[in-house]
Design brief:
about 70% helix, about 280 residues, mainly alpha, three-stranded antiparallel β-sheet, 10 helices, about 5% strand
């Protein structure tokens, strides 16, 4: 029995193990997504607090909320990197599974060709060569797919679903450690066996009222006097959205960094170009 048949051959094989591992990782990824959404909500809340503090010329409060906002954004980056790493693992496992399916189908086709009749006997040697080439290519492809980084690899022939799941978390941890801006001290000092668990603790300990609404309303006072591309884009976006603003949605629609949208709103508020509209909740 050759390499590919050992992996994707009869019985349970490793294909089911790959599917099981992918499902485990998917569940963990959903937990990460839930945490990301919680942090994004917290970010929006703090953003509103900074806007209102700037509007009221309350520099001390604005400074406090800005520091907290910056910290939340750092933790959010840790969570986003974890989410992307887990997604990469899932795609990689699915690719390995699909490579096995391709091999299985081609191998069945070769067997059918060999058994048609003796008139194709002259073709059989070339079929044998083709089978060997497919097996060699598959082996090389699986080896490439299993190499995630210099320190993390997926050994699909020996590791079970639980081991592959642990490798996925290890890979996510490694990716987080590669963050250029570094990991916030609040995460490093939190309780937890992994960086994700630490980030989760920080997110859960976050205090403050969470906005009931996804975005908040602003009042347009005057258009920016000088033509400043980003200022105008953000201003017009708010107008077109019936004067409602969610910084994450705005950044996505305008193809701008979220930080840039936040800074632009802070600037327009400080210049008296717009202010938060207080509505009854």
């Amino acid at each position: 029995m050759n390499f590919a048949e050992r992996i994707f051959g009869g019985g349970d094989g490793l294909k089911k193990k790959l599917i099981s591992a992918a499902r485990r990782i998917e569940v963990h990824k959903r937990e990460v997504i839930s945490l990301r959404l919680r942090l994004e909500n917290r970010r929006q809340f703090l953003f509103e607090k900074v806007v209102r503090a700037i509007e009221h010329k309350d520099d001390d409060s604005a400074s406090i909320f800005t520091v907290e906002l910056t910290e939340v954004k750092k933790v959010l980056k840790v969570v986003k990197v974890s989410e992307l790493a887990l997604m990469q693992i899932i795609v990689r496992l699915e690719s390995i599974r699909d490579v096995g399916d391709v091999y299985s189908n081609m191998n069945d086709a070769f067997k059918i060709m060999r058994g048609v009749n003796k008139s194709v006997s002259g073709v059989v040697p070339s079929l044998e060569n083709a089978t060997e080439e497919v097996n060699t290519t598959l082996s090389e492809t699986l080896a490439d797919l299993g190499n995630l980084s210099s320190s993390v690899s997926l050994d699909v022939t020996h590791e079970g679903g639980k081991e592959l799941f642990e490798k996925a978390k290890l890979f996510a941890e490694e990716k987080v450690l590669e963050l250029n801006e570094g990991i916030p001290s609040s995460v490093l000092s939190a309780n937890g066996d992994s960086l994700f668990e630490k980030a989760k603790q920080v997110a859960m300990l976050a205090n403050g009222e969470i906005s009931d609404e996804k975005d908040f309303q602003v009042t347009m006072l005057s258009q920016p006097e000088r033509k400043k591309t980003v200022d105008e884009k953000v201003y017009k976006y708010i107008v077109n959205k019936n004067k409602r603003l969610n910084v994450i949605d705005a950044a996505d629609a305008l193809n701008l960094p979220i930080d840039e949208v936040e800074k632009t709103v802070f600037k327009l508020v400080s210049e008296g170009k717009l202010k938060a509209a207080y509505t009854e909740r």
